[in-house]
Specification:
Strand content: 15-25%
Strand order of the largest sheet: 2-1-3-7-6-5-4
Distance between the termini: 69 Å
Structural class: alpha+beta
Shape: rod-shaped
Number of strands: 7
Oligomer: single chain
Number of helices: 7
Largest sheet: 7 strands, mixed
């Protein structure tokens, strides 16, 4: 899918064909669409194809008068949403190709970051001011990371509450999913931070004072997101360790109870075994009375239970 946008009267509006000072949004393109973009804009073929690699890392590359900037953006994998409502989060690379009169964004998914800009939900967007427009996209990316981290914290809190009531594999699997999301976020955020710091030096794009302020704001939010990601990862790791300890402790309690029951139930088996021997005159006291082994078994079981309780073993 290829979309063309331009700022008219202070609003982002779609246009039918590419113009000078426009924004070209490419989402999950076909080979024919990629060829058309390259022929229309004269963009480097490697720049166009770079962002279509899902394993591409965040970086900046300059080739003559063209600049390629790849940043990781957060995504929500809704198809893996579980019954309790928690979600699996991930990241996907987005390429930003800056030409002399055009800005091209390329991504494998239609993301909220770019869709909100295309639909006019973001104010003060001026596509013709290329550097400022790119930095506004980076600011939106940083804000989306923070929002998704808050969603992770919300899901983690919900799972933690359920842990108090039940200890099931479902909760553990959900915690592992959140831990995986935080690992992806942490790696992507650190890579984005390096890329933004490189752009902030002013060697990639010419920076004006207002543009620098926007980029610095984006960098501040990225660093805040990195800190939040590290904190949540530590809390999540501690919770999972506590979860494992609780499961192990419950298992120990169950084994302890079963051991006590086994010890107590062994006593009547021994007594009934003695009295049940088919030997005449076995010398056992009051062997002729049927209630005698029952009485001895009851006394033995009671004594064993009192002993174990006194020694704090039951």
């Amino acid at each position: 899918m290829i979309e063309y946008y331009k700022t008219l009267a202070g609003r982002v509006v779609p246009i039918k064909e590419p113009e000078h000072g426009c924004w070209i949004n490419v989402v999950h393109p076909t080979s024919d669409e990629l060829s058309r973009i390259i022929s229309q804009t004269g963009a480097e073929e490697d720049f166009i194809y770079a962002a279509l690699d899902p394993e591409e890392s965040s970086r900046v590359e300059i080739e003559e008068d063209q600049v390629l900037m790849i940043v990781d953006i957060p995504t929500v994998e809704k198809e893996k949403e579980n019954e309790e409502g928690s979600q699996i989060f991930g990241t996907v690379p987005m390429g930003i190709v800056i030409l002399s009169g055009t800005v091209i964004t390329i991504c494998l998914q239609d993301t909220v970051v770019l869709r909100s800009i295309a639909e006019g939900a973001v104010k003060d967007i001026h596509i013709s001011l290329k550097a400022r427009f790119v930095f506004q996209i980076l600011l939106r990316v940083a804000g989306r990371f923070l929002k998704n981290l808050r969603l992770i914290e919300r899901d983690f809190t919900k799972i933690e509450r359920r842990l108090y009531d039940s200890l099931k594999n479902e909760e553990l699997i959900q915690l592992l999913g959140l831990s995986k999301s935080l690992v992806y976020f942490s790696a992507s955020l650190k890579a984005n931070e390096v890329t933004m710091e490189k752009v902030l030096r002013g060697r990639v794009l010419k920076l004006y004072e207002d543009d620098r302020d926007i980029l610095e704001d984006a960098l501040i939010e990225i660093r805040q997101a990195i800190e939040m990601s590290n904190i949540y990862s530590s809390i999540l790791a501690g919770t999972m360790d506590a979860y494992a300890s609780v499961v192990s402790n419950n298992l120990n309690i169950i084994m302890k109870v079963l051991t006590v029951i086994t010890i107590i139930m062994t006593i009547p088996n021994i007594i009934f075994g003695f009295y049940g021997m088919n030997i005449s005159g076995n010398g056992l006291p009051m062997a002729a009375f049927w209630w005698m082994p029952v009485l001895l078994a009851a006394i033995g079981m009671t004594g064993a239970w009192l002993y174990l309780k006194k020694n704090n073993l039951n």
